Amino acid sequence: MEKMIAQMNVLVNEEGYLTDFTQWNKEIGDELAGEHNIVLTTRHWEVIDYIQGEYKRESPLSIRKIGKSGVVDIKEFYALFPAGPLKTATKIAGVPKPASCI
Amino acid sequence: MKRLVILGAGTAGTTMANHLHHKLNRKEWEIDIIDERTEHHYQPGYLFLPFDIYQPADIVKSIKEFVPSDVHLITKKIDRIVAGENFIQMADGDTVPYDLLIIATGAKIAPEETEGMKGKEWYQSVFDFYTYEGALALRDKLRNWEGGNLVVHITEMPIKCPVAPLEFAFLADSFFRNKKMRDKVKITYVTPLSGAFTKPKSTAALEHLLHEKDIFIESDFAIAEVNNETKTIVDYGGKEIPFDLLVTVPTNKGDELMERSGLGDDLNYVATNKETLRSKNYANVFVIGDATDIPASKAGSVAHFEAEILTENILHFVNDESLTATFDGHANCFIETGNSKALLIDFNYTTEPVEGTFPFAGIGPLQLLKESRMNHWGKLAFRWIYWNVLLKGIAIPFVSSNMSTAGKKIN
Fold first, then answer.
1. Interchain contact, A62 vs B237, CB within 8 Å
2. Lesser CB count within 10 Å: N end or C end of chain B?
3. Do residues A90 and B183 touch, judged by C-beta distance below 8 A?
4. How far apart are CA B38 and CA B40, in angstroms?
């Protein structure tokens, strides 16, 4: 389905995740963060960069992996993106929700 | 003579030995299987030990009994795999060279990954049921437990048999009802996932069942520590859940052997092509069962279906053909729901579990994603099938290695 975010019509799934990463830009990230009452700081953007990098390398994401990334530890990750940080951070980053497993 | 070496004589490794010992040309190929253990455990049976439904003798047999006599069983510890040079370094200094390697070393629990989990309450009020020792210790605890907060908990995904903790919660509900003490026990199901299961349709069905059985659910709980003093589990967000009895599924990891060999990821799983089951890094190394990093369930049924695909690809490989058999992620799991009923789910990489009939379209006799007694008898019958059919590499009648959509309500 289509959704208007930051004056852009983008494709999202039923949970609001972008389905086409190429449509993502920083303004969209800001607006999606706003929906979760988060104001993005430099620290947030460092984590988002990391998440997008892993997505581009087709490397699966997990909380454990982010904790070991050297970018952020798990405690700070929770502080930056409270309640379900991986789900929130991936949504803001415009990448699919991690299929944490089967 | 060329040599095929299988590492691990669990479900996947034993099944592969049974497939290949009569399918490979034995004038050209010797087959070795290496495992330091002597016992083969029917792991799905661990779920039933704590409730005295199965006894130890039901689930323990010798590895030897299931390895074909023309396959060389080596009961020794492996130090590491030297994949670049095609040999196995044994802990006692021996080396075992190979032309073709199958890694089937499985996964196991790593409670030490979580702060405080293996503290002073371990096997006092904190238990796992993913090991034989844990399941038996929990059985002894449950025999005399007087009630309180029972917390059934998953540490992080992936885990072996992702439905097992749900089954544990359901069986605990009926266990305490039968003991006429259900009113003394509050059962809480705590998961790092957003709901009861990983796929939407089964999550809805399973959450309905949890509700019906008065089992509370706490989702999105990423554990930071087990506090042995306050007897609580605490998550990174600061949420605390008190327990009198904590039944946890600790972090699962592949074998440390992968770390020593430089073949594993951060959880010691081996990078594997999810369709061909070949290692992503070495052309003559294949990986099967819980040892892989593929996005399929870590379950015996998956190992069984993979074994049929992998056997084809091994034969292609030795004949210098391209690996045309492809695995679709097929899993088929019974979910015990208590009171002699069970659900059955059947799914793959792309199709989530849906309602329907199995294995015969419109007939069943098994019902998909619905509780029935027949499904429960199916689950109990499965132990016989495991020992007598599955490990021997015999195909289960009417159940194909790739998933069938017949009889299913897709969408």
1. no
2. C
3. no
4. 7
Q: How far is CA B296 from CA B1, B48, B157, B259, B272, in A?
A: 35, 24, 12, 22, 12
Domain ranges for chain B: 2-106+255-318, 109-251, 331-390
- Check if CATH label 3.50.50.60 holds for domain B109-251: yes
Contact residues, B window 123-152, toward A, CB-based 8 Å cutoff? none
ipTM of the complex as predicted = 0.76
Is the domain defined by B2-106+255-318 classed in CATH 3.50.50.60? yes
Residue ranges of chain B with pLDDT lower than 50?
Answer: none
A–B CB contacts, 8 A cutoff, strictly below:
49
Question: Domain spans of chain A?
Answer: 2-93
Task: Report the pLDDT value the prediction gives residue B411, as an integer from 0 to 100.
Answer: 64
Q: Which residue of A has its CA nearest to B203?
A: A102
What is the rounded CA–CA span in Å between residue A85 and residue B220?
Answer: 9
Instruction: Pick B157's closest partner by Cβ from A68, A84, A101.
Output: A101
Q: Is the pTM of this model over 0.90?
A: yes
Which residues 97-126 on chain B approach chain A with CB closer than 8 angstroms? Answer: none
Say if residue A101's pLDDT is above 80: no
Residue A102 has pLDDT above 50, yes or no: no
- Reported confidence tier of residue A100, pLDDT bands at 50, 70, 90: low
Are both B2-106+255-318 and B109-251 of the same fold? Answer: yes
Beta-bridge mates of residue A9: A4
